[in-house]
Amino acid sequence: MKLASYVGGDWVEGGGEGVALTDPVLGDELARASSEGIDIGAAMDYARNTGGPALRRLSFAQRAGLLKGIADTLGANRDGYFETALANSGNTKTDAAIDIDGGIGTLKFFARLGESLGETHNLRDGGFDRLARDEAFQAMHLSVPIEGVAIHINAFNFPSWGLWEKAAVALLAGVPVLAKPATATALLSYRMVRDVIEAGVLPAGALSLISGSARGLWEHVTGADAIAFTGSAGTANALRAQTGVIASAVRFNVEADSLNTSILGPDAKPGGAEFDLFVREVAREMTQKAGQKCTAIRRALVPRALIDDVAGALEARLAKTVTGNPRDETVTMGPIVDKTQQAAVLGAIGRLKEETKVITDERDFRPVDADAEIASFVPPTLLRCDDPKGARAVHEVEAFGPVCTLMPYGDAGEAYDLAGRGGGSLTASVFTGDDAFATEATLGLAANHGRVLVVDESIGESQTGHGIVMPMCVHGGPGRAGGGEELGGLRGLRFYHQRLAVQGRGDWLKALAGGAAEI
C-alpha cells in the first residue's frame, strides 16, 4: 500500500519506492509514502486560489460548522483509528485516545468558539482611538485572514492531535491548510484526512495533504503564507534558513525541543499530598506515550533534603510499569515509534549517563509479548544528577522517550536558575501547598517558559496534567522551545490574520467594525 497525497482536489500517488512505515513492535511494513513527482507548487496555488476565497466568504459561524463536520466525521470513524495508532505508533489504547480524542476535542472547542463569533468575518482588536483634536478622526485595529496557505509540518508523536489542532485554528481563521505529517506515523493522518475528504464537509481546496517528503515545498512559499512547524530545533532552524522563507519574510511558528521542568516545593513532605502528586505526575509523564511528548517532564527538581525519598518513591512507582506489545491488555507503556528514534533516545541516555547515575533497574529488561531485538523499546529510565549546577548535558540533551533526570536544589533561586538552563521550555509545573512559594515560583519561571502549571492538593485530581495541551491556552515557549505560540483560543487565530490599523472618520469606522468580532 502506498499513501497518496491529496492535492489540487485529487488523490495523487507519488512515484518511486517511497519510505516504509513500520510497526514498531513487530517490525512489519505497513505502507509506503512518497511525494515524488507531486506538483507542490500547483497544490499550493489551488489552495490559495480555490480554498482561500471559499473560506473567506464564510462567516466565523459557518467556518465553525466546517470544524463541527470534521469532528463528527472523525467521531463516527473513531473506533477504527485505534488499531492504526497501535500498529503504526505503538500506542496503548490510553495513549491513542490522548492523540485521537485530543484532535477531535480541539476541533469541537474551536467550533464552539467560532459559533460564539457569529456571522462576522474578521476580528477587531480593542476599541477606537482618537488621533487628533477633531474627535471625528479616529483609528481602530482590524484583523483579516491572510490570503495564502497555512503550511503545517507535523511531528511523529501526535499524528492526529498535531494535525487537527493546527488545522482547526487555520480553518476557523479562514485560511486553507496544506498538512505534511511526519512520514514515520503518517498512516493515521492519511486515514483521517481520507475520511474527511470522502465526507465532503469542506470546500474544495480547504485541506490538502502531502504524504512523504516536503522537498521542493519551500520554493513555492510567498509572503502571504504561514508555516507552523512542530519538531526538532535543528530542523526548524534549517527550514527558517530556506531562501524563500527569508526572502518573503514568511510567518513561521515553531514548537521545538523542550527540556521541561517540574519542581517540588520546599514545603512538601514524604507521604504528603503534594509529594505524592509530584511523584505520580513525573512517572506519568515518563511513561505516557513512552515519553514521546514535547511537553514531557525531562528534569525533576526537588529540595536537596528530599531527593532520596523522591528517588525511592519514583523507582517504586516506575517498577509497576508494564512495557511491551500494546496488543496485550496488561501493557501500560508501548515502544518508541521506530528504530531510528530508539537509537536517538539510547544515544541521548548515553550522553546523560556521563553526568548522572541510573536509578531504575535496567537489568533483564524483557518487553511483554515482543522481541526486544526487532521492536523499538526503551525501558523507563530515571537518572539522578547530584551536581546539576556543574552539569551541562542534563540541561542541553533531550532524550525524547521515557527518560527523566532527578536533581536537587538548595533554595528557590537555584531551582529557577536550573530550570532556566534548559534555554527556554514549553512548560513547567510546580507542586506546592504554599501559596507564597507558588507565586514566587510562577514569576521566577515565567520568562523561560510558555506555560506554568501550579498544583496543590485541592486540584490534584482535577488538574489536566503537566504535559496536556489545552486549546484555550497558549502553547509554545521561548528560546530552545521555538519562540512561537499556538492555540490560545482567539489568540491562536492572530497567526493567520493580518492586523492593520485603519484610520478615518469615527462613525464610518464603527460601521466597518460591525462586520468584525471584538477580541
CATH C-level of the largest domain = Alpha Beta
Radius of gyration from the alpha-carbon trace, in angstroms? 24 Å
According to CATH, the homologous superfamily of the largest domain is: Aldehyde Dehydrogenase, Chain A, domain 1
Helix content: 25-40%
Euclidean distance between termini CA atoms: 47 Å
Give the uncertain stretches in residue-range form: none
CATH architecture of the largest domain: 3-Layer(aba) Sandwich
Layout of helices and strands, plus pairs?
Blueprint: E1 2-3, E2 5-7, E3 10-12, E4 19-22, E5 29-33, H1 40-56, H2 60-76, H3 78-89, H4 93-117, E6 122-124, E7 129-130, E8 137-145, E9 150-153, H5 161-173, E10 177-180, H6 186-199, E11 207-209, E12 226-230, H7 233-240, H8 243-247, E13 251-255, E14 260-264, H9 273-287, E15 297-303, H10 307-318, H11 339-352, E16 357-358, E17 381-384, H12 393-396, E18 403-409, H13 412-420, E19 425-431, H14 435-446, E20 449-455, E21 474-475, E22 486-487, H15 490-493, E23 497-505, H16 506-512, E24 516-518
Question: How would you describe this structure in keywords?
Answer:
Aldehyde Dehydrogenase, Chain A, domain 2, alpha/beta, Aldehyde Dehydrogenase, Chain A, domain 1, 16 helices, 7-stranded mixed β-sheet, 24 strands, 519 residues, 2 domains
Summary of the model, kept short:
With 519 residues, the chain is α/β, with parallel strands linked by helices. It has helices spanning 40-56, 60-76, 78-89, 93-117, 161-173, 186-199, 233-240, 243-247, 273-287, 307-318, 339-352, 393-396, 412-420, 435-446, 490-493, 506-512, and strands at 2-3, 5-7, 10-12, 19-22, 29-33, 122-124, 129-130, 137-145, 150-153, 177-180, 207-209, 226-230, 251-255, 260-264, 297-303, 357-358, 381-384, 403-409, 425-431, 449-455, 474-475, 486-487, 497-505, 516-518.
